[in-house]
Amino acid sequence: MSSKKDKNKSPMPASSAGLLRFFEDETQGIKIRPEIVVGLSIVLVIVSILLRLVIS
Fold first, then answer.
1. What is the residue range of 53's domain?
2. How far from chain centre, in Å, is Cα 13?
3. Overall domain count for the chain
4. How many CA atoms lie within 13 A of 15 on its CB side?
5. Residue 48 lies in a domain
6. Over the stretch 2-43, which tens digit does the pLDDT of each residue have?
């Protein structure tokens, strides 16, 4: 019977190996959480809609 360790050590498929390798690389620069980026974009949309309503 195969143990749990054997299942974790199975090789990754060739098609997804490049994607996993990409996310393992650390790069220099500003690191922002995705939630902040989504929140700021929603705020920008709301502000632009409010400005359009106020100006017209």
1. 32-56
2. 22
3. 1
4. 0
5. yes
6. 555 555 566 655 555 555 555 556 778 888 999 999 999 999
Element (H, E) at 1: none
- Find the radius of gyration of the CA atoms of the chain: 22
Instruction: For residue 50, tell me if it sits in a domain.
Output: yes
pTM above 0.70, yes or no: no
The counts of H helices and E strands in the chain are: 3, 0
Q: Could you tell me the two tokens for 40?
A: 């700021």
Structural domain contains residue 4: no
Tell me if 47 is assigned to some domain.
Answer: yes
d(CA 5, CA 40): 43
Tokens of 14: 């060739």
Distance CA 2, CA 6 (A): 6
